[in-house]
Specification:
192 residues, alpha+beta, six-stranded mixed β-sheet, two-stranded antiparallel sheet, 6 helices
Length: 192
């Protein structure tokens, strides 16, 4: 018996919190597409469960105790709209990418994040096949001291860029995301 639409929505965000490959295979279709992968490591754009696992690894590398409490769900036969909060503590570099290259690396601040997002999940044959989101990134960046820029945070970000720490953080985050994607891709090959 498959999951209902509410279970699929909860499952997708549980994958991001935990990196559970079995849950990813149960919830995410092999041709899954994440429209929001543009600011993440390239492995996050991998179709299917691998891309979702890479996205979770990327986010968990920056935010410990990552959680997505769901505030509301609306649905029809082929879509689910999820209103939730993204919460966690910023303990690792939060690296954002543009066209696959380092765009911004925010050094760990130790600060808590807690902000709202709305996600639209496309469904087919009892699995999630697509994802897009409307996120309040300005609030998150404000909570991290980046927007408007707190002088200390801006100086740390500049120092990270000049000393190469930002590039090393981007390489490490990219490696973690790629390894998370490779894990599920290897399991899928073995099961065939």
């Amino acid at each position: 018996m498959g999951m209902d639409t509410t279970d699929l929505a909860h499952g997708l965000f549980r994958i991001l919190e935990t990196g559970d490959p079995e849950l990813a295979s149960a919830v995410v279709a092999e041709d899954f597409h994440n429209r929001e992968a543009a600011v993440s490591p390239t492995a996050c754009a991998t179709p299917g469960p691998a891309g979702v696992l890479a996205s979770g690894a990327w986010m968990r590398s920056a935010f410990v105790d990552l959680r997505f409490p769901i505030l509301g769900i609306a649905r029809n036969d082929d879509q689910v709209w999820v209103r939730l909060r993204m919460q966690g503590r910023h303990t690792g570099p939060f690296v954002r990418f543009r066209n696959g290259a380092l765009d911004q690396a925010i050094p760990p601040t130790g600060r808590e994040i807690d902000f709202e997002q709305i996600h639209v999940l496309d469904l087919r044959d009892g699995k999630v096949v697509g994802h897009e989101a409307v996120r309040d990134d300005i609030t998150m960046l404000g909570q991290l001291g980046v927007f408007p820029p707190a002088p200390a945070t801006a100086l740390r970000m500049l120092a990270w860029r000049v000393t190469g720490r930002a590039a090393r953080a981007a390489a490490q985050v990219t490696k973690q995301a790629t390894e998370a994607a490779a894990q599920v891709l290897g399991e899928l090959r073995e099961s065939r």
